[in-house]
Amino acid sequence: TWLQNNSPGSPRTVAGGPAGPALPNGPLLGTNGATDDSKTNLIVNYLPQNMTQDEFKSLFGSIGDIESCKLVRDKITGQSLGYGFVNYSDPNDADKAINTLNGLKLQTKTIKVSYARPSSASIRDANLYVSGLPKTMSQKEMEQLFSQYGRIITSRILVDQVTGVSRGVGFIRFDKRIEAEEAIKGLNGQKPLGAAEPITVKFANNPSQKTGQALLTHLYQSSARRYAGPLHHQTQRFRFSPIAIDGMSGLAGVGLSGGAAGAGWCIFVYNLSPEADESVLWQLFGPFGAVTNVKVIRDFTTNKCKGFGFVTMTNYDEAAMAIASLNGYRLGERVLQVSFKTSKQHKA
DNA sequence: TAGAATT
């Protein structure tokens, strides 16, 4: 069921045609004799949102032996970011993958398979958002306007879904961030030849940077399916401080802590990935209220997360809301178990 | 005035 029609407004490949060859901008061999992966490592763009790592691997593994592959996902929500990397053992298989899979239509997407550029800071944050374009300007014309500032990796003009007419906004991704910076300096506020209005050129927002509000909305929707009533009814019911409840036997041995992290409710978070770090916990729990401390438990030798961590929150109701919302939450391919910390821990 | 392009 992957095969379907292309959608209008799909990005057109530039800079050397579809999946153009990588520029020889890296050494062929490292000083230690390590193999050059510029001819085996591919980047795959415009993957369907619901494609999994396994499906991704299966698709590209059908070409040849894969050294490694990775579907890139949002660190917090685990959602696919729509692109991934495949490193083949044999450069010939990488070439074959480009020739046979680039342009493949999967659901509403047309995937792009091309050589990955060597990863470096200089190629990050090189995407520009352009608005105020003349409706008559084509993608090619937009590229011509911007190409004087550097090598364009991809470009796109957004069009009305119904009429197909340009909406006057688009994106330009340069090879290098400095090229994008120069393009802003040279073109922001300028009128293209013959245009009536000046265009606006600025760095594009990063679509993967979800706000706490967006995360909350996402969590509310997922937890609302698992709980009978609206969550805010619970929220208003309890509002007592940890100090006031201290000593109450009803909740003895549960959650409440008063250590170096300060008084608060200690929450146990289980089934984190080995790559999890403190920022993940901050971003997961921060939207629910006052968080005073987070800790990822790591293996002493590997420094990888051992699969669990702790979060301390100041207010009971906010902690309870976080637990109700995040327990059972799917983070990537894992389902979190979240509860107040108890004296006898993680037996399940 | 908004796309999932660097692990």
TrEMBL record:
<dbReference type="InterPro" id="IPR006548">
    <property type="entry name" value="ELAD_HU_SF"/>
</dbReference>
<comment type="similarity">
    <text>Belongs to the RRM elav family.</text>
</comment>
<feature type="compositionally biased region" description="Polar residues">
    <location>
        <begin position="1"/>
        <end position="10"/>
    </location>
</feature>
<feature type="region of interest" description="Disordered">
    <location>
        <begin position="1"/>
        <end position="33"/>
    </location>
</feature>
<keyword id="KW-0694">RNA-binding</keyword>
<dbReference type="InterPro" id="IPR000504">
    <property type="entry name" value="RRM_dom"/>
</dbReference>
<dbReference type="Pfam" id="PF00076">
    <property type="entry name" value="RRM_1"/>
</dbReference>
<dbReference type="InterPro" id="IPR034915">
    <property type="entry name" value="HuC_RRM3"/>
</dbReference>
<dbReference type="GO" id="GO:1990904">
    <property type="term" value="C:ribonucleoprotein complex"/>
</dbReference>
<dbReference type="InterPro" id="IPR003954">
    <property type="entry name" value="RRM_euk-type"/>
</dbReference>
<feature type="domain" description="RRM">
    <location>
        <begin position="126"/>
        <end position="206"/>
    </location>
</feature>
<dbReference type="GO" id="GO:0003723">
    <property type="term" value="F:RNA binding"/>
</dbReference>
<keyword id="KW-0677">Repeat</keyword>
<dbReference type="InterPro" id="IPR012677">
    <property type="entry name" value="Nucleotide-bd_a/b_plait_sf"/>
</dbReference>
<dbReference type="InterPro" id="IPR035979">
    <property type="entry name" value="RBD_domain_sf"/>
</dbReference>
<protein>
    <recommendedName>
        <fullName>ELAV-like protein</fullName>
    </recommendedName>
</protein>
<feature type="domain" description="RRM">
    <location>
        <begin position="265"/>
        <end position="343"/>
    </location>
</feature>
<feature type="compositionally biased region" description="Low complexity">
    <location>
        <begin position="20"/>
        <end position="33"/>
    </location>
</feature>
<dbReference type="InterPro" id="IPR002343">
    <property type="entry name" value="Hud_Sxl_RNA"/>
</dbReference>
<feature type="domain" description="RRM">
    <location>
        <begin position="40"/>
        <end position="118"/>
    </location>
</feature>
